[in-house]
């Protein structure tokens, strides 16, 4: 499996813009498990609900499943990017 598998499916998009929740969530109709390197492109205009509201819409989405090479590359890059979060300090600390 050295090539991406691409297909279209319907989906449900939920966007919330409230005091307690600022989020966007996509539920695909296709029974597919997304893994590292996979991509989902939701078609249509951006959904921008006014403050205090939650909007749910049906949309069409294009799903691109990563090849074995792309999946491995995405995992390696994700692991390396986690190292950016580490801060190592070699200063001497003395306690009295």
Chain-wise SSE layout:
Elements: E1 5-17, E2 22-28, E3 39-42, E4 53-65, H1 68-83
Antiparallel strand pairs: 1-2, 1-4, 3-4
Please summarize what this structure is.
Helices cover 17% and strands 39% of the residues.
Instruction: Indicate the overall shape.
Output: flat
Oligomer: single chain
Low-confidence stretches: none
Radius of gyration: 20 Å
- Terminal CA distance: 62 Å
> Largest beta sheet: what is the strand line-up?
2-1-4-3
| Residues in β-strands, percent | 35-45%
- Helicity level, as a percent range? 10-25%
Total beta strands: 4
Q: Any overview of this molecule?
A:
Helix content is 17%, strand content 39%. It has one domain (5-83). It has one helix at residues 68-83; strands at 5-17, 22-28, 39-42, 53-65. It is flat, with a radius of gyration of 20 Å. It is built from one helix and four strands. The model has no long low-confidence stretch (mean pLDDT 86). Strands 2-1-4-3 form a four-stranded antiparallel sheet, with no helix packed on it. The protein has 96 residues and is of the alpha+beta class.
Q: Which features characterize this protein?
A:
4-stranded antiparallel beta sheet, flat, 96 residues, alpha+beta
